[in-house]
Amino acid sequence: MDASPAQADTPTEPTAATPPEAPTPAEPFDALPLHVALSALAGLAVTIVWGASGGGFYWPMWVWLGVSIPIAVHVLIRFGLSRPTSAGHALAIHAASSGALGVLLLLLWAMTDSPTFWPVWPLLALGSSVAVHALITYADRLPGRRREAQLAERVGELTRTRRGALDVQAAELRRIERDLHDGAQARLVALSLLLGRTEERLADRPEEAELVRRARGEASAAIGELRDLARGIAPPVLADRGLAAAVEALGRRAATPVTVHASELDHRPLPVVETAAYFVVAEALTNVAKHAGAPAHVHLVEEDGRLVIEIVDEGPGGADANGGGLTGLRHRVEALDGELTVTSVAGQGTTVRAELPCGP
Amino acid sequence: MRAVIVEDLALLREGIVALLREHDVDVVAQAEDGEGLLRIVAGHKPDLAVVDVRLPPTFTDEGLRAAIEARRRQPGLNVLILSQYVEPVYTAELLESGEGGIGYLLKERVGEVRAFMDAVERVAAGGTALDREVVSELVRGRDRGAGGDRLAALTPREREVLELMAEGRTNAAIARHLVVTPGAVEKHVTNIFGKLDLFATDDDHRRVLAVLTFLRAA
């Protein structure tokens, strides 16, 4: 959000040693046109010889066949053996080589005076294989499939942008929290300090001292409210020490005995994931205190790029899976492509389990 | 008394310096970050360092870490931590950071001038000053942990006295706070120590430590 002033002020220096425009490498000599031209010349030459020698059976066709086979091989080597750069390119190579082969077959058929049109079968085989290839390559352009592909792309895009929006929101909230700390809270503390010093000097005027004392009380209440607000955004210990420490702090603070098993995570999840996980534990422990009034156990592990949070209590069970503020939390978890489940069987306690993607 | 102040917000730093000077504390140096704390503590060997938890560059628990490091380099250094919030984890880290007076107070307590100056003097003398919020967290933790039954055996008044003791206050201060005679406080203290099975001592500081050890035992 802050434009870096250093970046804005320093003009981009031209790189000191820009090499002079490198000469474009010479196009490799393309032998194919020459090959075709020479072959055509040879064919024409023998045709002239055939014409000059009185015609009759058009024997030069064997020469044509002879020179066209190397050309077909040349084309195949040239295009067929180059690495396909895309699905479309691969299809073009396939079609071109099939076409070349088909032409050769037709040529062969024309030269052999065969009574039946036998090339129909190999041509059919070549053609249908190209057709299948084309169908596979461009399946997503078919009317129905096209829609599906568009939707898949849209889902991917929405997932990315929603994640981005949540990250921005989390960062923004932390900025607000810091502003509260450095701004309003600090000023109120300074005010409280001034009022305290004033109160001291009014020792001989109890009525005025009482007024000042009350003003200081109001300032303290405001500071307390701001503190609660800031804690609701992101508890300081979470930002300072990470999720495991923050969850342990929650366990210590809970109204019922809580054991915490938090394994060290490989890397710190994004703030937005951390905060959601923290509030799942906080809300679940509040519910345990309110409804179960029994000991609880919190487990925190990372499994296959997912953060798994489980809060198990030893209470009576039978809790409403949608009650106790869990719906809001479920939305929060689901917005991160996570999952929140509540299992509560009468007599077997209640388990709140949340899974959140936390991969890098 | 010679003190140093480490606080990044000038408004607050100046206010605290003015308050301390009004109460005859000699503020010998000021700094704005953890590095600064280590530097002025090494240079001035003060009786007390008053430190804000949240300092640049990280604005997390920089001040706390620097204070613990300063105590490591200079054993017995008296440190009073001021914070916008109290965190039991940090209390534990402070109490375990070795010899010397320890204070951990919410920032807004600076407005309660007399109580704050009491705390400053206590910590500068090697004593303890814990915020009442910290103490109530500790008591709550003990309530449901092992020994919770012994805590439950205290009368409400005894519990009040226990919490004031845990904050680090002397009998005289407790008596003033509860508006009772010092004799009455002494009687409560004897009862508390009896009910909690603690070894009674006349030394105020050792008494605080005994109470804190009891409260923190899991």
What can you tell me about this protein's structure?
The complex is a heterodimer of chains A (360) and B (218). By secondary structure, chain A is α+β, with helices and mostly antiparallel strands. Helix content of chain A is 63%, strand content 10%. A five-stranded mixed β-sheet of chain A has the order 1-2-3-5-4. The radius of gyration of chain A is 40 Å and the shape is elongated. Chain B has two domains: 129 residues, Rossmann fold (3-Layer(aba) Sandwich); 83 residues, Response regulator (Rossmann fold). Chain B is built from eleven helices and six strands. The longest helix of chain B is centred in the C-terminal third of the chain and has 15 residues. The N and C termini of chain B lie far apart (37 Å). Chains A and B meet through helix 6, helix 7, helix 8 and helix 9 of A and helix 1, helix 5 and helix 6 of B.
Short key terms for the protein model shown above:
heterodimer; A: 360 residues; alpha+beta; Heat Shock Protein 90; 3 domains; 5-stranded mixed beta sheet; 11 helices; B: 218 residues; alpha/beta; Rossmann fold; 6 strands; globular
Secondary structure blueprint with pairings:
The complex is a heterodimer of chains A (360) and B (218).
Chain A: H1 5-9, H2 32-52, H3 60-80, H4 87-112, H5 120-137, H6 143-201, H7 206-233, H8 236-241, H9 243-253, E1 258-262, H10 271-292, E2 296-303, E3 306-313, H11 326-334, E4 339-344, E5 350-357
Parallel strand pairs in A: 1-2
Antiparallel strand pairs in A: 2-3, 3-5, 4-5
Chain B: E1 2-6, H1 10-22, E2 26-31, H2 34-44, E3 48-52, H3 62-73, E4 79-83, H4 88-95, E5 102-106, H5 113-124, E6 128-130, H6 132-144, H7 148-152, H8 156-167, H9 171-178, H10 182-196, H11 204-216
Parallel strand pairs in B: 1-2, 1-3, 3-4, 4-5, 5-6
Helix pairs in contact in B: 2-3, 6-8, 6-11, 8-10, 8-11, 9-10
